[in-house]
Amino acid sequence: MDLLNIISGEVQSYWEQPFAQPYFDNSTRREITATVGQSALLHCRVRNLGDRAVSWIRKRDLHILTVGILTYTNDQRFQSLHTEGSDEWTLRITSPQPRDSGTYECQVSTEPKISQAFRLSVVVSRAKILGNSELFIKSGSDINLTCVALQSPAPPSFIYWYKGGRVVNYSQRGGISVLTERQTKTSKLVIARAVASDSGNYTCSPSSSDSASVVVHVINGEQPAAMQHGNSSANGILINKHSFSLAYIAAVPVGTNLIISLTSSSIGFVLKSFLLHGAYR
């Protein structure tokens, strides 16, 4: 047997060995959650790739998205990222939408082909301010609001508070503090010794999340029983009986008529000529 045949046989024997064949590194995460608007990254790591090609396939329609570093779809949000000499081939989806949720396959052009599946879930992150959507605070008490970023796979980089359309101004009024805990995805706004000018619409806006708002009313004097407990002790009218929320209240001297406007998602309703009977003292 001549030397050429010996070398050829050794090379063939080497490539037939299992460790020389491409295989997937299973240390990468294969269940990925991304939020709308933030890039989704699917990391596929292939060992012993050699001269084979790595492709990304969308499973639901078997659409080829990328081959190597080339994009094979008209949707330019999909891109393959690869650093020369590395084992990692990353599919990046820019500005993912819920419709992009599903299974994606990292495929290697061996014979037969081998593939690894990745499951992507794209969610809409939203903020929630704990408590009711409308709050009545007694003048001189503290306004205390807590906001949580829900369905956010990663802590928000920031959480801003707005009053109306403006960021809450710390310098314009003393007694305002904000405590944001990124790991728990929460932010607390405290406004000490509330006055009437602190009334308004407060909005919590985390990065990459839909915002949430609450309307705060700062009331001078004692709060009416109807506001505190959802009923009028004098006449037994349950304000919350049909899940009404108090939208507006005009206080008038004892012994005269009180007009209360109530709203719900489906019913608008006005109570007129309601005698106070000591609701204000």
From TrEMBL:
One of its GO terms (biological process) is synapse organization. Residues 22-109, 112-215 form the Ig-like domain. The lineage of its organism: Eukaryota, Metazoa, Ecdysozoa, Arthropoda, Hexapoda. This is Ig-like domain-containing protein. GO terms for cellular component: neuron projection membrane. InterPro entries: Ig-like_dom, Ig-like_dom_sf, Ig-like_fold, Ig_sub, Ig_sub2, Ig_V-set, Zig-8. It comes from Aedes aegypti (Yellowfever mosquito).
